[in-house]
Amino acid sequence: MLPKCAFPFLAMLGLALGACSDEPSEAEMRRAFADRAERAYGKYAATALLMAGPRGVVLKPQRVLTSFRKLGCARVDEGTGYRCEFEAGLDGKPAGKDRLRFVREPNSKLSIVEQ
Predict the structure, then answer these.
(1) Does residue 37 carry a pLDDT above 60?
(2) CA atoms within 13 A on the CB side of 103
(3) CB distance 88 to 95 below 8 Å
(4) Which of 19, 18, 26 is nearest to 69 (CA)?
């Protein structure tokens, strides 16, 4: 049986070892997913404005990420990133499952790459 004073040490050790993992956290995945959606909306808006010309255009509103939950990740065979499964809900609608490949950039920011 371990002494009571060992439990805080073991908890800190577990947190430290967990931080060494490069598997994306749920918060990082949510941020990368939201960033990708924002960039996609920006491209849509720019294309719509370009196509409309001087007549103007009414843009669809940008979709809002209302829920996100990480289901699991597996390292990609090449060793570059993880293929992660998650549930995401947009505009208050029920969450749907999806799977994307997440990679860590040199600046430690997580991003999504095309399949």
Answers:
(1) yes
(2) 11
(3) yes
(4) 26
The mean pLDDT value for 9-23 works out to 53
Vertex 14 angle, CA 81 and 24, to 5°: 20
CA distance 37 to 43: 10
Whole-prediction pTM value? Answer: 0.74
Calculate the alpha carbon distances from 72 to 2, 7, 67, 85, 87 in Å.
Answer: 32, 28, 16, 5, 10
Distance between alpha carbon 111 and the CA centroid of its chain, in Å?
7
pLDDT tier, 115 (very low <50, low <70, confident <90, very high otherwise): low
Percent of the chain's residues with pLDDT above 70: 80
CA atoms within 13 A on the CB side of 78: 6
> Token match 């289901």: residue?
71
